[in-house]
Amino acid sequence: MKLKKGLVFSAAFMAIACLFKAGQPVRAASEKLSTKVIDGKKNYGVYSSLKQVKVKTGKGKKKKTKLVWKFGKKLATTKEFKLAHVQSRSYKLARGRRYYYVYVDGRGVGYVSERAFARSKMSLVRSVSLVNNELDTNGFVTTDAINYVTDKHGSVVDVNSVKRSADRISEKTPGRYVVTYRYGKASGKVTVTVRSDANEGISKDDAKLGKGGNVGKTWFPHELAFRGNYNAQVTPHTYVGTDKHGKKTAKLTTKFYEPNSLSLLEGSQETNVRGNVQGLDVYGQDMVTTNFYGGPESSMDGARGHMVLYQLNQVPKYALQYIPTNTLNFQLWKNYVKSIKISPYIKLGHGQSVGSTSRYIYELANWNHTKKLRSNELLQIDKKDMQVKRIWTFAVSNGKRENNRYFLNADVIDDNTMLALFHSKSKHRFEIWKITRTGNSFKVKEAAATDGDLISNSSQVQGFTYNVAHKCYYIAFNDYLFKIDAKGNLVNYYHFNAKREVEGLASYKSKIYIAMNKRAEVFDSNMAK
Questions:
Q1: Is 160 helix (H, G, I), strand (E, B) or coil?
Q2: Phi/psi at 227 (nearest 5 deg)?
Q3: Which residues 6+ apart lie within 8 Å of 426 measured at CB?
Q4: DSSP E strands: which ranges in 314-440?
Q5: Are strands 209-210 and 441-451 parallel, antiparallel or unpaired?
Q6: How many whole angstroms from its chain centre is CA 314?
Q7: Which residues contact 331 (CB under 8 A, 6 or more apart)?
Q8: CB 347 within 8 A of CB 274
Q9: CB of 184 within 8 A of CB of 120?
Q10: Average pLDDT of the residues in 356-368
Q11: For residues 347 and 142, what is the distance between their CA atoms, to the nearest angstrom?
Q12: 3-class DSSP assignment, residue 319
C-alpha cells in the first residue's frame, strides 16, 4: 500500500491497519480520554480481558494455526453501570467492531462493545419557561438545556461544539421560541417560552425585622489552618459547637468520607468527577452533592459540574474513599458503585442552592459573582436518570423590577415551594423569601428578615436550610452555624472551631447534615433545640 507523503493516520486507522499484518495480534488503539454514556435500553457484558489466541484447525496437511479473539471473565453487565461515571481512552478492533476498555467511577474494569453506548445521541431538557423580565441582562443560554451529546462512538462532546439555532433567548419579549440542536447525526429541539406577566415576582419586603446583629468573626478561605491531604481517612472527626453562652453543644460526628474522585485524575473538566463539593441536600435516605472539578470552577459564569446521589443506608464510613482504586474486592466495590448515581456534566451554577424531594433534585444555577441584574434560574433534575428535565427562570423584586433579589442559597420544601436567602449588604440584613410555583408561574412573599450581617467581617454564606422539626432556619459561614427562628430572630449560634469551610448544609426531620472540605466529609447532628 503506497502512502502519500505527509498523510497523518488517526489512531482508529492504525488499529484497522494492524488487522492486515498476518499472524500479528491487534494492539489497543489509544485516543483522548472521554466520558461514555451507557445506553440503558441495552445490556452488554463487561469482560476482564480481550486478546487474540492461537487456535489450531483442520487435520493432517490441512492443519493450520489462526488467531481468534477470546474474552476473559465476564465481570458485570453495562446496566449495572448505567448511572455510574464511565470513561475510556483505548479500544481494540475485533470481529469488525470496537471494544472499549472502560473505567467505572475511576477504576479500570474491562472491555465492552461500543454498541453498549448511546451513540450519536442527544439528551435535552423537556421544556424551558422564562419569566418576563425586561431588565434581565443575561437571558437564557441555550447550552443550559443540554444534558449530554455523544459522537458516533458514544463519547460525550463539549456542549459548545453543538450547533444551535440561537445562543441566547431574551426574557424581554413574551412568546414561544423553538431552539434546534445538531451535532453530527444527533439532533433535537427545545421549546422555550417567555411568560406574559411582566409583574410576576414583584412583591414587598414587608416582613417584620427580627433581631440579629454581628456576633461572629471568622477567617477567609485563604487562612485555612487545615489543608489536609487526599490519602484515605480512617478515623472519624467530632466537633462540638460553642454557643452564644459559651456552652458546649451541637455535636457534629462523621457520617462518612466522600470519594476524593469518581473518575481518573486526568482529562478535561467534563470527564472528571472530583470531591470538590459546594452543595448538599438530604431527603430520606437520598443525599445529593454538587461536585466540581475544582473550587474556582464553581465561581465561573455558567459553571457546570456533576451531581452525585448517595444512598445513606448503603454508605460505609470510610470505604467509599477507595472506589477509584483496586483496594476493595470487586464484588464489594460493585455494590457500592450501584448505590451511587452520577449526573452528566450539567449546568449547576455556584452549586450551593440545592434541594430535593422524593422524585426530584432542584438547583438554583446562579453565578455568585454577578454584578448585573439577572433572573434566577431553577433546574429540576430527575433522580431516576440524574438528568435535567425542566428549567424555569423567575424574578423576585421589591416594589419594582429594579429592586432585584438574586439568590445564592436556597432550600426546597416540596416540589412547588422553595425558601431562598438574600443578603442585603447595603441594608445589613438577611431576607428569606418564600417562592411558590403553580405550573410555570411563581408567586413570592418575604417570609422573614433578620437585622445585621451575623458575621462582622462579611464572610460569604456557605449553607442555608430550613429545619421542619425545629421550625427554624440555619445559616452557615465557614465553621459557624446560626439558628434563626421563624420570625427572623437569632436564637443561637454555634462555633465548631474546625478551621474548615462548610460546603453544604441540609436537614431532614430533626437531623442536620453538614459537608466540610479538605477533604470532603459529611457530618450529622441532632441539633440542640
A1: helix
A2: -90, -40
A3: none
A4: 340-342, 346-347, 354-356, 360-364, 376-382, 387-394, 397-398, 409-414, 417-424, 429-438
A5: parallel
A6: 20
A7: none
A8: no
A9: yes
A10: 97
A11: 11
A12: helix
Q: Which residues, 6+ apart, have CB-to-CB distance to 345 below 8 Å?
A: 35, 148, 156, 269, 270, 271, 304, 305, 306
3-state secondary structure of 15: helix
Could you report the per-residue pLDDT of 433-483, keeping only the tens digit for each?
999 999 999 999 999 999 999 998 777 899 999 999 889 999 999 889 999
Nearest to 406 by CA among 188, 201, 167: 201
Q: Please enumerate in sequence order all residues whose Cβ is within 8 A of that of 405, keeping only pairs 6 or more positions apart, or say none.
A: 396, 397, 398, 420, 422, 431, 433
| Secondary structure class of 128 (helix, strand, coil) | strand
Coil vs helix vs strand at 86? strand
What lies within 8 Å, CB to CB, of 60 at 6+ separation is none
Cα 266 to Cα 255: distance, rounded to the nearest angstrom: 29
Convert the pLDDT of each residue in 264-311 to its tens digit: 999 899 999 998 999 999 999 999 999 999 878 899 999 999 999 999
Residue 296: CB atoms within 10 Å:
10
CA distances from 514 to 226, 276, 284 (A): 17, 14, 15
Strands 304-311 and 346-347: antiparallel
Q: What is the 3-state secondary structure (H, E, C) of 266-302?
A: CCCCCCCCECEEEEEEEECCEEEEEEECCHHHHHCCC
Report the 10 Å Cβ neighbour count for 462.
26
Q: Angle at CA 68, nearest 5°, toward 63 and 74?
A: 140
CA separation for the pair 347, 469 (Å, rounded): 32
**pLDDT score recorded for residue 7:** 41
Does an H or E element contain 337, and which?
A: helix 330-338
What dihedral do alpha carbons 253, 259, 260, 266 form, nearest 10°? -170
Distance CA 180, CA 454 (A): 47
Condensed to tens digits (0 to 9), the pLDDT of residues 90-141 reads 999 998 899 999 999 999 999 999 999 999 999 999 999 999 999 999 999 9
Read off the pTM. 0.92
The rounded distance, in Å, linking the Cα atoms of 461 and 463 is 6
Instruction: Yes or no: say if 495 and 479 are a contact pair by the CB < 8 Å rule.
Output: yes
